[in-house]
Amino acid sequence: MSAAHAPLPTATRLGLIGCHVCGQVCRCVAHGKVGACPRCGASLHRRKPNSIARTWALLIAAIILYLPANIVPIMRTASLFSSTDNTILSGVVELWVVGSPDLAVIVFIASIMVPVLKFIALAWLLVSVQRKRARWPARQRTRLYGLVEAMGYWSMLDVFVVTLLTGVVQLGPLARVEPLPGVIWFALVVVLTMLASMSFDPRLIWDNAAENAVKSSGNLHD
Amino acid sequence: MNPNASPLVICEHCDAVYRRRPLARGEKACCLRCGATLYRHQRLNVHSVLALSVAGLIVWMIANLWPIFSINASGITSSSTLWGAVMAAWDEHVRVVAVLVAATLFFAPLLQLLLLIWACGFVAAGRRPPGLIQVVRVLKWLHPWSMIEVLMLGILVSVVKLNTVFDVTTDIGLWGFAALMVLITLVASWDTHDLWREPPPVEACG
Amino acid sequence: MTDSHDPTTRDDDLPEPAKVRKRRWTVSLIWLVPLVAALIGLSLVVTAWLQAGPEIVISFQDAQGITAGKTEVKYKNVVIGKVRGLRLSDDRSRVMVTVDLDKNAGSFATEGSRFWVVRPRIGLGGVSGLGTLFSGSYIGADTGGSQNEDRYFKGLETPPPLTHNEAGSSYLLSSKDLGSLDIGSPVYYRRIQVGRVVAYHLDADGKGVTVQLFIKAPNDKFVTDNTRFWNASGVDVSLGAGGLKVNTESLATVISGGVAFGTPPGNTATTQASEDSRFTLFSNQALAMHPPDGAPVRLKMLFHQSVRGLAVGAQVDFLGIDLGRVTNISLDFDPKTKRFPAEVTAVIYPHRIGRANQRFIERTGNDNPGALLGILVKHGLRAQLRNGNLLTGQLYVALDFFPKAPKVAYNGKLDPLVVPTMPGSFDKLQQQVADIVDKVHKIPFDDLGAHLDASLRQLNALLAQFNNELAPEAKSTLEQAQKTLSTATSALSGDSPLRQSLGQTLQELERAARSLRVLTSYLSRHPESLLRGRRNNDPAPHAPPPPSHQPARSQP
After folding, report:
1. What is the pLDDT at residue C26?
2. Residue in B39, B33, B36, B47 with CA at minimum distance from that of residue B8
3. For residue C235, which of A93, A104, C248, C344 is within the disulfide window of CB 3.0 to 4.6 Å?
């Protein structure tokens, strides 16, 4: 990786702002609040407004809701003789037992691992940004953020499965599927984590890294 | 800066500034610093996107009018379309979920396609699409909320779960959603910045 | 993946290449995609539209079991349509169900088609529609066969018993009451179900019930004008004078009632009865198959005894032939004798006697039953109550001849005819038993018992005495006797000297007796020889030679 150490021109230093909607790059005069993009009229921000606070708020809310989401059952299968309540975890186990271990793994990753990893990743990213000093290089952290952003929405898998089953398995007393409140909590968790990752500004990582680089290069030169 | 120079592009993840360069087929431009993708070579032009969006709209209608799959338990059958499942969830008092599913699977793809048809239609006709700004903003905002791929995986998981107990038969809706997934992926990954290319470029802000 | 970065080069002095507009071919190619999508969509829509049949509206009283978008319409278990929507009628009295029929079910949207909801139902044909417990109810359909289109139907509340194109014939039965029949009750011929009851209604005058049957082809050809129908419901248990009889057609009839039919023997009509012919429904097979009874004759009898055990409907028997039935039993009061004789009216069918009746009529030249009966009464015909069944005490009326019966006046013009009666034999039996009981009663069992007791006591004492005193003596006596006997035996045995000498002595005696007999016979012939002596030329009395001496033989 060649130019990792060469200081690259950043928009901040050059006094440029890019519109996040249309991509138009504008020159901005003053730091701080600026007006609208000349091309598309979207409001321009140097950084996502209030990123850290919003991300923390959404993340904590999501973590709080994650507990009921996993404990409260998400789906009830009722047949003539019995009725079973399923949580997310028991759904995975059932898939495994039924004979589709590959799908069980996929659902496990999507519904359980991804949210948890998102929590950890976002929390760690936030902490690293706030501490202004981290062990991992900024590049890896940015890649982590890219991963979180890209994979976030796959957690909706279980919500869709429950909805589909509810819609199709309506055979009267013979077999019926009903969704239970757990699925609401889970859906909210997914939405909140998606909003959290959308409100996190990864450029903050680089702001700190740039400062550190300046400091360290300054130290080196000494 | 020279307005006739290649337009600039700023990395969204790390704020680095580059000059936009044309790419060859299959290439994508990456940020040197953080490795994030800046832009890709666009295979599609406005006309292709229009055609694909129209196709997507037709496919969307097919996918939603016909049931996705049906189950059969000793002669008793039941099937459901996507909207039927949404309505069932609504009736079962998990209204938040019903709204969410409808938003992400029913309305979001529809809106994406309609907006693209609108914008690309006008551009293909050589006119500036009215409300282009709003269209592009909404499109950009809709993009992460359109989850047809997750629906496909969800259908797969549901079919597998039900196949142990019932006779599951796939129906037209399933194929519709598969085709919709492909089309949406194609058109949604299209860089809407291209829409701005046709009209004359706007000067930098002051 | 190539990196492209150029933060500071200025490329504005390089000429821009000429822009060449691409050919429209690539543009056209991409338009294949929506074209294909449109074509597929269109074909799907067209197929669905082509398969769509007419839309009809059925009104039901209740929408129970009907779900919009799910409930199907089935004919012979084939889905021919689906319910699209439900709404209440304007006056809220009925539910209007909108049904989309399939294209090939267009013939159901015609006049006369019937629709009903199939739900789980427990009825007389059995439990039906259980499958709908799981699958949900469906709407059954039956076409009317007409060609005129109709879109609005009134739904039936219960499934019709008869579908339109079932081949067969329907007939009417007149009956006193419905019994245990109902719609769906089976009709049997030779114990095979060939049809069912489809409808019933009260007659207009309220005096009977008309039952409509449907017999399936080809078995309807067995119904001729001579066919008799009878009620084969339940288990026919009759405990009559003839004994206990249990008769049942099938388990189904036990539950749901049933009708059976058959032809009385000897009837050979072969043409099928015309549709909707009317027949009588008899209460049981015996009644139905009975040859016609002819004109009934009413009788009245007065019995001076208890008629307990005689029931209305009891048999009137004539020399073993079932002649009729008792129709009424009541008490009469005779002021002269201040008693309550029982008045029993019965109806008899002289025709049942058969040929005897014919002959009788021929002989007397008079078929007035009163006169005929008068002749019989003159010869001793009396009515008597007899015991049909000792177990239950059931009685029947027997008409029998009693030659020693006292003469009675008879009036052949009364209606009902009065038949003189005779006290029942059972009565006599009772009397005899009573007498025996009396006699037994008179035996002084107490005294006898006391005497017997005393005698027994004495005997007991005697036996005790015997036992204690006489027994040892008796024993010794017996021993002695035994010895004596053995001595005697040896003395009397074959070669004992006693026996031998005894034998000799007997022989001597025999000789003596013989000669004495000779002498007496000579003397009887020659009595004068006593005086004169024997003459010289008189042959000497010969003693016959003594029988050869045989050794003494033991007595055989």
Report:
1. 58
2. B39
3. C248
Interface contact B101-A38, CB threshold 8 A: no
Among A211, A182, A152, CA closest to A67: A182
Summarize pLDDT for C201-239 with one digit per residue, the tens: 888 888 888 888 888 888 888 888 888 888 887 666 666
CA C142 from centre of chain: 40
Determine whether the interchain pair B18/C37 forms a contact, defined as Cβ–Cβ distance below 8 Å.
Answer: no
Q: Which residues pair with A220 in a beta bridge?
A: none
Question: In A15-134, which ranges are continuous DSSP H helix?
Answer: 51-71, 88-98, 101-108, 114-131
Alpha-carbon distance A138 to nearest alpha carbon in chain C (angstroms):
19
C66-97 pLDDT per residue, tens? 877 778 888 887 888 888 888 898 888 888 99
Residue B51 contacts C, CB cutoff 8 Å: yes
Nearest to B5 among C12, C27, C36 (CB): C12
Q: Are A153 and A194 in contact (CB under 8 A)?
A: yes
Nearest CA in chain A to B153: A157
- The percent of chain A in helix, strand and coil, each rounded to the nearest 5, is 60, 10, 30
Per the DSSP assignment, residues forming a β-bridge with C343 are C302, C330
* Contact indicator for B28, B40 with CB cutoff of 8 Å: yes
Q: What is the pLDDT of residues C493-528, one digit of tens each?
A: 666 677 778 788 888 888 888 888 888 887 778 777
- Does residue A196 contact residue A58 with C-beta atoms inside 8 Å? yes
- Please say if the pLDDT value at position C344 is more than 70: yes
Locate all alpha helices (DSSP H) within chain A, ordered by sequence: 11-14, 51-71, 88-98, 101-108, 114-131, 138-151, 157-168, 182-199, 203-221
pLDDT tens for C113-131 read 888 888 776 655 556 666 6
The percent of residues above 90 in pLDDT, for chain A, comes to 29
Cβ A40 vs Cβ A24: under 8 Å:
yes
Residue C543 · residue C514 · CB < 8 Å: yes
Q: Which two tokens stand for residue A54?
A: 């919003």
* Substitution target from A1, A25, A169, A174 for chain C, most C beta carbons within 10 A: A174
Q: What is the pLDDT of residue A164?
A: 94
pTM of the model: 0.62
Name which of C5, C7, C134 is nearest A172 (Cβ-Cβ): C134
CA angle C209, C211, C215 (to 5 degrees): 165
SS3 C144: coil
- The amino acid occupying position A122 is L
- The pair of three-digit structure tokens given for residue B155, joined into one six-digit string: 């259908």
3-state secondary structure of B181: helix
pLDDT tier at C551 (50, 70, 90 boundaries)? very low
Amino acid in position C532:
R
The encoded tokens of residue C424 equal 């029942």
Structure tokens at A28: 């901005």
Q: Are A179 and A162 in contact (CB under 8 A)?
A: yes
The angle at the Cα of B30, spanning B24 to B36, to the nearest 5 degrees, equals 140
CA distance C424 to C306: 10
Of C184, C194, C178, nearest to C158 (Cα)? C184
| Three-class DSSP labels, C317-368 | EECCEEEEEEEEEEECCECCCCECCEEEEEEECHHHHCHHHHHHHHHHCCCC
Separation in Å, CA C366 to CA C103, C360, C362, C363, C412: 79, 8, 7, 8, 13
| Token pair for B168 | 């599951």
Neighbours of B132 (CB within 10 A): 21
DSSP state of C542: P
ipTM of the complex: 0.88
End-to-end CA distance of chain C: 150
List the chains bordering chain A where 3 or more Cβ pairs fall under 8 Å. Answer: B, C
Give the angle subtended at the CA of B133 by the CAs of B127 and B139, to the nearest 5°: 105
- Closest Cα in chain A, distance from residue B58 (Å): 22
A-chain residues near B80 (CB < 8 A): 164, 167-168, 170
